[in-house]
Amino acid sequence: MTADGRFPDPGTQSGQPLPALPAPAAESPAPAPAAESAASNGEWLRVHPASPFVRGWVALAAIAFFFGRDIFERSLQGRPVFEEELAGRAPLLLAGGGAVLLVTVLGFILTWYFTKYQVAGGYVRVNTGFLFRQQRQARLDRVQAIDIVQPLLARIFGLAELKFEVADAGESAVRLAYLKMDDARQLRATILARAAGVTTGTEDPGVAAPEAPEYPVLAVPPSRLVGSLLLSGQSVFVVAATVASVVLSAVTESSAFFLYLVPAVLGLAATYWNLFNKGYNFTAAISPDGIRLRYGLLDTQAQTLPPGRIQAVKITQPPLWRLLGWFRMQVNVAGYGLVENAGEGSARTTLLPVGTLPDVMNMLALVLPDPGTPQPAVVFGAGLTGLDFAGGFVTTPRRARWLAPLGWRRNGFAATDTALLLRSGRWWRQLVVVPHQRTQSIALHQGPLARLFRVADLVLHTTAGPVLPRLTQAGVDEARTLFDEQSARARLARKRQTAEQWLRQVAPAAAEAVPVAEPVRTTHQQEGGQHG
Amino acid sequence: MRTEAIDPPGIAWQRVSPRYITVRLVQWALGNLVAVLVLSLPLMLVLAGVWVWPPLWLAVTVPAVMLLVALWRLVLIPRQVRAIGYAERDDDLLIRTGIFFQRTMAVPYGRMQYVDISVGPVERGLGLCTLKLHTASPGTNAQIPGLPAAEGARLREQLAARGEARLAGL
Question: ipTM score here?
C-alpha cells in the first residue's frame, strides 16, 4: 500500500491514466449509458461518514438518555440540576460526561476512517478495524446473493447497506455499511456484472457497469399478506388459547387465566409484526442479473439472487391456506442458511411469502428456466396439489399405507430432465424441487419398521437452509433405482453446467436477445420453457 | 459382507479394520460404564442406609436397565463395525453404515470440498484413522472410521485427485 492508503492501480502505474476504452455495446446486457464510477477502477473508498452514527445511534441515544433524563426531571421539579453537595464538582462531572461522549464520537470517526473497500481484479476487499484490523476479500465469481438493506434510520438519511454472500468464505456475509443509495445500487450492478463476466472489467477502469434492466413479475398485495397471517397456524393457536382460557375462567370463576396469556400475546404480536414488516410490499422482478426481491415496511431490503444460485425450493401450503389457494415458497441459498439472526434469516430465505398458483408457477419459471418436461403445468401442478400417480409421480406402495395412513398417496417423487420433485403431506402440503446440478450427496435410510414394509427414505443433501429434501417411504426398489439414476443425472448436470460466471456461457451478443422471463443460465434452453 | 436391501447391487464393499472394534469398545466403556456407575450411586446409598428415598426396587431397577442396554450395545459393536463399508466407484464414493438403521450414502467426487483425517489417542495406538468428507452441505455426514493409517492416506490422496479432476461449482 502506498503512503496515501491506495493500492497503485495496475493501469495507472506510470502516472499516465490510460484513456477509458468505450465498452463495446455487445458486452453490456443493456444499452444503458455507462456511468462514471470510482468504485469499479480499483480505488480504495470509504463508506459514508454518517454510517457509524447511523449504526451506533443506540449508544448515543443511551448517553443522551442517562444524562438528559436526570436533568429533565430535576428541572421539571424545580430543583437545581446538581445537588448542593455536588455543586462544587459540577465541572468535573460535566467533563466526565463530555469525555465519554468525545471517546464515543472519536471511536465512530476512527471506525469510519479505517473502513475501506475496493473492487478490483475479480475481488472485493473490505478493511475494517483500527485496533484489530481485518481484511476480508471475496471472489466476485463466487457471489451467491447480494442484498441492499435499509434499516429505518438509514432510510431516513438515504443510506443503504450492501451485503453479499460468497460461497468460498467461511464467514458468510461481506457487509458494506453504509453507502449512499445510488452508490450502493451502482456497486451492486458492478459486482453483478463482474460476477456474470459481462464486461472486460478491470481492463477498462472508470467505466462502471450499467444497471441491468429489470421486469416486474409479481407483487403481493397487503390484503393478501394480512389474510395469510390471519389464516396461519399461530392464529389457530391464538383462537384455541382464547377459547380455552374463557372456558377455564367460566368454569373456575377466576380471571387469573388471562394473566398467563399476557406473555404469549406479546410474543405472538411481535411475531405477527415481524412477518408483516418483512413481508409488506413484497415484489419480485427478473433481470439478467437474477431474481430481484424487494420487501419491507420500515426496514426495506432488496435481494438479488443470480441465476442458478438457488440450491433448493420448498413450496408449502398449510391447511387453512387451501381455502384461498395460497402457497409459500422458501429457498436454500449458499450462505443464507448460516445467518446469525433467525428473523432476518427466515425473511431472506423466503422467495414468496404468500402467492396464488399462477404466482408460484411464475416464480418456478424464474428459478428453473428449463423445467425439463414438456408439460410443466401438469407435473408441477400434480406436485403441489395432486395425489397418486397423476403427473408421473411415484408414491409410497400400498403395502406401506399403515405407516402413513393419510400421506401415503401423496408422498412421492417425480424426476424431470432438470430437477427432482419431492412431494409430501396430505394436510400440510409440501413440494421440494432440487435442480439436478445442485445435489451435493445422496443417502438412503432404512429403519427396522421401514424394512418390514420394504420401504426406504431417500435424502438429498443441499446447503444449509430451510429446505431439507427428503423422500419418505418410497418402495425399496423404486428408492434404489432413484438413488442410482439421481447420481447419474446429477453427474450429467454437473458436466453441462460450466462456469461460475453465468453470462460467459452464452455469446455476449445473445444477452440482449434473451426473452424477458428467461434469465440466461444454460445454453440448452427449450422452447415453451415457461411453467403454467 | 451380506448385501442389504437398500444397497445398490453388485458393489464390492471395502471393510474397515477389525481393530476398530477395540476403539468402539473403549468408547463404549467410557460412556456406558460411567453411566451405570453413576446410576448405581443411589443404590449404594440406599443399601448403606444413608438415603431413605428412593425405594430399593427403584434403586435396583434403574441401573439394571441401564446395564442391560449397555450390554446390548456391547453385543452389537462387532456387527456394527462389520456393517461399515465403503466403495470407490467411477464418479462417487459409497459409504454404508448401520444394522437396524441402515444408511447408504453416495458422495460425488466433484462435490467434495475437502477431506479430513483425524486420529484419536486409541486409534493412534492401533494404527487407525478416521476419514471425513465435507461437501457444501452440512447434511453430508460422511465419515469412514477405523481405516488403517496407510489406507487412509491412500484414500485421501485418491479422493483429492479425483475431486480435483471433477470439481464443480456449487
Answer: 0.87
